[in-house]
Amino acid sequence: MNHLKAFTADDWAVVAAIVAAVVAFWQASIARRSAGRQLALTERIHREQNEPYVVVDIQPERNGGALLLVVENTGPTVARNVRISCDPPLESGWAPEGDRWDLTQVIQGVLARPIPVLPPRRRLTFLLDNQERFGNTELPRVYKFTVNADGPAGAVETSEYTVDLDAVRWVLLENWPTRQLEAKLGKIEQAVRALGTHDRLSSPTGTNAVRLRRQRPGSSDEE
């Protein structure tokens, strides 16, 4: 403490200047780091907004009971050199018969080859299986797809998608039969209406009935 008492006013001024310089340097460093992080975040957001986004999924066919492997670019730019891997290897439950294609080999061949170009909103669908797949306990139920691709600014961040066929099963069993039944009932109703209209217009009684219903109450034609 004694040496502090020996400090003159000039000494204290020098100390204060040093402390102020240290504080200013520290604040400038924090500001530079914050600005750098903000700039990096802005660049990342801008890049991601302009990158392709390739999604891989297994979906039920809308108008049938088939299972489809779907590859779609939902991003705003072209995806190039799209590479897709699956763990475990994707298999179909359909066994080849005669000259029919082996769907397991077809699907695995599709995934083994890079997709050179996948434009925005382009959707590729491949036949994988049918409803009997859900009763096949020998095949895996969960698959993990890993997707790598190149965008306008270079390599896109790796994406991973986990598909649980048990969840897909509920979508297929709940939605597809209902839509099919509603569509069939709608066609039957239209056919019945068309048949009834044809019968009324083709017979004298039906023609009079239609004409009488169009008259105003109390008109002479109703008597």
Describe the structure.
The protein has 5 helices and 8 strands; from the N terminus they run ααβββαβββββαα. With 223 residues, it is an alpha+beta fold. Strand 1 (54-60) and strand 2 (67-73) form a beta hairpin. The longest helix is centred in the first third of the chain and has 41 residues, at 9-49. It is elongated. The model is unreliable at 205-223 (pLDDT under 50).
Number of strands: 8
Tell me the strand percentage band. 15-25%
Structural class: alpha+beta
Mean pLDDT score: 77
Characterize the main sheet: 5 strands, antiparallel
Q: What value does the Rg take, in angstroms?
A: 36 Å
Low-pLDDT stretches: 205-223
Overall helicity? 40-55%
Q: Provide the succession of SSEs.
A: HHEEEHEEEEEHH
